[in-house]
Amino acid sequence: MFQAVIDTGFSDYLTLPPQAIRTLGLPEGGSMRVSLADNSETDLQVYAGTVSWDGRSRDITILAAEGVPLIGMSLLYGFELRIRTIDGGSVTITSLTGPSTP
To answer: What would the CATH number be for the domain defined by 5-95?
Structure first.
């Protein structure tokens, strides 16, 4: 299990540090050119992975990137994101299609 930061400017699914990807033994799927927040571009390695999300297993792409893992908007698609923007404020992610059943 990893702690991650929600990044509303990240349009893909998930990033993980390369060391975590090696530890998990994820299969590589090539590379992808991405634009970063500072408007620079870089190539990141792409991996295939499965996450448990809202009680279901989902096959997703995972990008290798240094730093804290990021949850992107593709993983949040179909969900409502509520953020209380105060110190210690809560973050709530709710399915827009109702509760899932495993």
So the answer is: 2.40.70.10
